[in-house]
């Protein structure tokens, strides 16, 4: 599965995209846990990210499939 990082998340991760093996995670929370293991610098950001598959926001308990692209979106601030 592909992971896409946006905004500050891309800066912290040092990349805009990453690939995870299908057996590393079965749901969104599992993906976030795997990312925290691989990229500990993201750990402070992951509790607040929004996650999307395609054009739809997904909850952390939702299943992700091997062919999915999971986008991680940082919180929006400002006015």
3D structure, described in words:
There is one protein chain. The protein is α+β, with helices and mostly antiparallel strands and 79 residues long. It has helices at 8-13, 28-38; strands at residues 2-5, 17-19, 50-53, 56-58, 69-73. Strands 2-1-5-3-4 form a five-stranded mixed beta sheet. A hairpin with a 2-residue loop joins strand 3 (50-53) and strand 4 (56-58). The chain is globular and about 35 Å long. The model has no long low-confidence stretch (mean pLDDT 93).
Sum up the structure in keywords.
alpha+beta, Ubiquitin-like (UB roll), globular, 79 residues, 5-stranded mixed sheet
Across the major sheet, the strand order is: 2-1-5-3-4
Structural shape? globular
Order of helices and strands: EHEHEEE
Which spans of ≥5 residues are poorly predicted at pLDDT below 50?
none
Q: Percent helix among the residues? A: 10-25%
Going by CATH, the architecture would be: Roll
Largest sheet: 5 strands, mixed
Name given to the CATH homologous superfamily? Beta-grasp domain
Structural class by SSE content: alpha+beta
How many E strands? 5
Our Rg estimate from Cα atoms comes to 12 Å
CATH topology: Ubiquitin-like (UB roll)
Mean pLDDT level: 93
- Provide the domain count: 1
């Amino acid at each position: 599965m592909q992971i896409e990082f946006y905004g500050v998340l891309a800066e912290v991760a040092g990349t805009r995209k990453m690939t995870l093996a299908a057996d590393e995670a079965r749901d969104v929370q599992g993906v976030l846990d795997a990312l925290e293991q691989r990229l500990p610098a993201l750990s402070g950001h992951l509790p607040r990210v929004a996650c999307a598959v395609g054009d739809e926001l997904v909850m952390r308990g939702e299943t992700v499939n091997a062919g999915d692209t999971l986008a991680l979106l940082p919180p929006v601030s400002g006015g």
